[in-house]
């Protein structure tokens, strides 16, 4: 993963911009879920739409404590189970806003975080969260019949960031094993395949 020495101001700004765009991408899809779609199946065979949104909401809830130096055992089971309550959209919006604010805090991207697989640079964690949001936005889009294509800037950024270590991303617990892309795959389809999705 990219070292701290490469975290220039320009790179920090770019990373935060792409993270914000990825959050907005998923937010748009959450707001597009119709009342009868929360139980619909998704490409993630273990989750329906509500469970997928809950998973991403929980991922955002972890961001502030991890960036504040908490270990997984410090948080414990606080984010286990359903976190969406009676208003899934509002629950997502609140968690997403808190995650965005935490990554934007002064010096946040220069810290380290304790993840399930070990100590990780916070900027690498942010990059993983971008990829997580992008691929799950595709899952949610496919489930509810929304536009499945993020911006070229977001696709190019995510591919550039994950390609050096794509083979090991499944070990993070955030992504499935990579799959073989179609022979004529475009950049977006290749990214999906790298992140364990059949384009």
Give structural notes.
This protein is mainly α and about 200 residues long. The protein has a single domain, classed as dinb family like domain (Four Helix Bundle (Hemerythrin (Met), subunit A)), CATH 1.20.120.450. It has helices at about 10-30, 50-65, 70-75, 90-105, 120-145, 150-160, 185-195, and strands spanning about 110-115, 120. A two-stranded antiparallel ribbon has the order 1-2. β1 and β2 form a beta hairpin. α2 runs antiparallel to α5 and α6 (about 150-160) packs across α7. The chain is globular and about 40 Å long. Residues about 1-5 have low confidence and may be disordered.
SSE class:
mainly alpha
For the residues shown, what is the average pLDDT? 89
Which fold name is given in CATH as the topology?
Answer: Four Helix Bundle (Hemerythrin (Met), subunit A)
| Tally of individual domains | 1
Which geometry do the CA atoms define? globular
Task: Please describe the biggest sheet, giving its number of strands, its sense, and whether it closes into a barrel.
Answer: 2 strands, antiparallel
Please state how the strands of the largest beta sheet are arranged side by side. 1-2
- Report the CATH C-level class: Mainly Alpha
Distinctive features:
53% helix, mainly alpha, Four Helix Bundle (Hemerythrin (Met), subunit A), globular, two-stranded antiparallel sheet
Which SSEs are present, and which pair or pack?
Elements: H1 9-32, H2 49-67, H3 72-75, H4 88-104, E1 112-115, E2 118-121, H5 122-144, H6 152-162, H7 187-194
Antiparallel strand pairs: 1-2
């Amino acid at each position: 993963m990219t070292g701290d020495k490469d975290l220039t101001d320009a790179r920090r700004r770019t990373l935060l911009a792409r993270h914000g765009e990825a959050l907005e991408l998923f937010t748009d899809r959450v707001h597009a879920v119709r009342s009868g779609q929360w139980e619909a199946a998704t490409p993630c065979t273990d989750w329906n739409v509500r469970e997928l949104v809950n998973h991403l909401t929980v991922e955002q809830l972890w961001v502030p404590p991890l960036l504040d130096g908490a270990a997984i055992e410090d948080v414990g089971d606080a984010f286990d189970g359903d976190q969406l309550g009676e208003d899934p959209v509002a629950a997502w919006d609140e968690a997403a806003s808190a995650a965005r604010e935490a990554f934007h805090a002064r010096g946040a991207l220069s810290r380290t975080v304790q993840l399930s697989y070990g100590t990780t640079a916070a900027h690498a964690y942010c990059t993983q969260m971008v990829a997580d949001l992008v691929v799950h936005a595709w899952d949610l889009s496919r489930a509810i019949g929304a536009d499945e294509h993020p911006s070229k800037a977001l696709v190019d950024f995510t591919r550039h960031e994950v390609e050096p270590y794509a083979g090991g991303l499944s070990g993070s617990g955030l992504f499935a094993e990579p799959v073989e892309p179609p022979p004529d795959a475009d950049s977006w389809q290749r990214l999906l395949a790298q992140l364990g999705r059949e384009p």
